[in-house]
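ok here's ArsR family transcriptional regulator:
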Amino acid sequence: MSSAPKHDVFQAIADPTRRRLLQLLADQELPVTVISGHFPMSRTAVSKHLNILAEAGLVKERKIGRERRYRMETEPLQELRRWLSYYDRYWDNKMAALQKFVESGSGDDPSDPTGPSAPKAAE
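and the structure:
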């Protein structure tokens, strides 16, 4: 029986450093020594971030000799994608409302001197 992960996908990607790590590992498998060269922090700090990503299932590690190599796993990102797709409808609704507003001709016409943005006469 396996225990639940210590960190979920949302917690893991909440940190900008971990998001950058995922971008770095998206197309390649790298050892921690190479990975840490891309960050202004110690190898130990990078390893801690990698461990959090691994606990969330976003990174897999394999040992080759004395070296540990890391690669990104995309399957856990599907949970994030499903969650975000639920909110796509709100974005789509806002874009549709904006399109309707723009196409209706409502709003501020800069060529109309009496429009809402026209300078007001001093009182």
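+1. The radius of gyration is 24 Å.
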